[in-house]
Amino acid sequence: MAVDKELLERDLYGLLGIGEKASEKEVRGAGGSGRAPIVPSLPPSEIFHQLSQALAVLTDAAARAAYDRVRRAKKEAAARTQKLDEKRKKVKLDLEAREREAQCQENEEEEVRITRSLEEEIIRLREEGSRQLEEQQRLVREQIRLEREQRSRGEHGGARSPRLQGLRWKCRKEDETRGGYSKDVLLQILQKYGDVLNLLISSRKTGSAVVEFATVKAAEMAVKNEVGLLNNPLKISWLEGQPRSHPSTVLPDSTSQPRTSQASVVSERDYESLVMMRMRQAAERQQLIEQLQREDEEESPHT
């Protein structure tokens, strides 16, 4: 008999309550003994119809063989589908795991690159700072060496560089303005001739100070041209001996134009920025020189 497609979708063995390997006699016995399971949702007539179809198929050898082939094929297909689904699921999980691992590795590599870049930048800055510090220390040590050689030549009768000068002006002890000459005013007056290395105002003797210029030329120009404030003239004299005479250098209009306290300060405003910068540089330089001198003094007993 021909096998109905609707029958292929049903579990005929289950309708009769028998196993797949049941004999024809067992099939007929199941269909006539009423051992088939009851389906409450179906009316009795429908149940009888399905049982009759199942019995008809399973008692016909050709129909049963065809039904069994379809049944096995469906089971095999279901098994393959399940296996494929499991394989796909495993592949998907493996792919996601590999993607996570690749992302983690990429993040780690990026972190390593950032860390290495930061370390290289720190090393570069340290090297640059060390080179700058070494160069600054070298220059300061060279300057200290030259100053020591100059002092040594002076102690052995050699000529000393006449850069040190004394400053004097009128000032009463009770005068808080120091006769109009504060350290800033003196620097403004003197630094237009050149760099001032040191300026010391006497705390014991009023109206007195000592100035050291960086060059002899600047010291000579200050001696020959500077008169200070009009209402309180400034006297500048050599403390280390006057240098050999040479053609004098006079600042233009140094004596022809009158000076006043206000005019002197105004004429020096052009130097304000440069003066402040030089003062800071001189202070930093002096601190570094003193530190290196202390280090040399500490090392000298062991040498």
From TrEMBL:
Task: Output one GO MF annotation.
Answer: RNA binding
Query: Which named protein is this?
Result: DnaJ heat shock protein family (Hsp40) member C17
Subcellular compartments: Cytoplasm; Nucleus
Sorted alphabetically, which keywords does the UniProt record give? Chaperone, Coiled coil, Cytoplasm, Nucleus
Q: Which domain of life is it from?
A: Eukaryota
Pfam families in UniProt: RRM_1
The Gene Ontology biological process annotation of the record reads:
spliceosomal complex disassembly
Residues annotated as region Disordered? 240-268
Q: Tell me yes or no: is Chaperone among this UniProt entry's keywords.
A: yes
Q: Does the keyword Coiled coil apply?
A: yes
Q: Name one GO cellular component term.
A: cytoplasm
Which source organism? Corvus moneduloides (New Caledonian crow)
Cite the source lineage.
Eukaryota, Metazoa, Chordata, Craniata, Vertebrata
Q: Which parts form a coiled-coil structure per UniProt?
A: 67-150
